[in-house]
Amino acid sequence: MTNWTQVMDAHGATARVPALLEQVERSDAPAAWDELGDRLCLHGETVSPASFAALPRLAALAPYRDRALDLACAIMRGAVQHHGGNALLAACTEAIAALRELADRRLRSRPSDYQRAFGDLLALAGQYHWAAAMEGFTDDFYPVPCPRCDVEVIVAIGEHGHYSAIRDWDRGDIDRRALRPAPAEDLSDLGRWLHATAVRDGQPRLAEGIRHLFGRAECPRCASVFGIAEAYTRANLAPSW
C-alpha cells in the first residue's frame, strides 16, 4: 500500500492526491478531476512520484471513467522526462498492462481523435519517443544523423512527399532522395505491430506512413542507405530508457 505521506505531487504536496482520488472514485466530479490532473500531470507533461503511485488506482477506475484513462495515458507520455521513472514504473506493471488493454479497446472503436489515442497506446507500450514523434503523417519530418557521415538528414513523410533531403534554410529541402518503404511482411516486430494495428482500425494513411518510417532512406551527402526508425531511435531515445 502506498504511503502517501512520503509521495509528493507536482506541487510538492503529499496529502492532496489521495484525497482527490477518493473523490473521483466516489463520483465523477469535474473539479476534482481538473485538480488531480494538475497535480499528477502539470501542464499536461510534468509528472512526479505521485503520478506513478496513482496509476494502479487510475487503472481500476479507467473501465468506468474515461478521464481516468486519459490521465493515466498523459502520465505515461510524460514518464520519459522523469528522472528515475523506470524504477517507479516497475512497480506498476500490472496497472500498465490493464491500461494498455483499455487503450487498445478504445482504438478499436475508431475514436475521432484516433491519432492521439494511437500515441497513448504507444506510450503504454513503452514507446515513448514514437508516442511523441508520430503525428499522423500528414506533414511529418524526422531529423536524423546519417550513421555513416553524421550529416543531419531530414526525412519527410506526408502530403508533400516521402523523401530524405538536406535542409537548407534559404532553399528548403534540397537533393531529395525517395524513401524505400518496407514491405509489410518485412517490418520489424514493432513496425509490424504498429502497421497491423493501423490496418485493423482502417487507418490507411497511418499504415502507409509506418511502412515508410520503418523503411530505409538514402543520405544525400554520402549516398549510404540506412534504416530510418533505427537512426531516429538512436538519436532520440534516452540511454536510461
Descriptive overview:
There is one protein chain. This protein is of the alpha+beta class and 241 residues long. It has helices spanning 16-26, 30-40, 49-61, 66-78, 85-90, 93-108, 114-124, 128-133, 189-200, 204-213, 228-236; strands at residues 139-145, 152-158, 161-168, 172-178, 216-218, 225-227. The chain folds into two domains: 4-112; 139-236, no CATH class. It is elongated.
Based on the model shown, name its key terms.
241 residues; alpha+beta; 4-stranded antiparallel sheet
Order of helices and strands: HHHHHHHHEEEEHHEEH
Uncertain ranges = none
- What is the mean predicted local confidence, pLDDT? 94
- Biggest sheet layout: 4 strands, antiparallel
Strand ordering within the main sheet: 1-2-3-4
Q: List the domain count as a whole number.
A: 2
**How many strands?**
6
Shape: elongated
Strand content: 5-15%
User: Given the structure, what is the number of helices?
Assistant: 11
Content-based structural category: alpha+beta
> How much helicity do the residues have?
40-55%
Rg calculated over all Cα atoms: 20 Å
In whole angstroms, the N-to-C terminal distance is: 27 Å
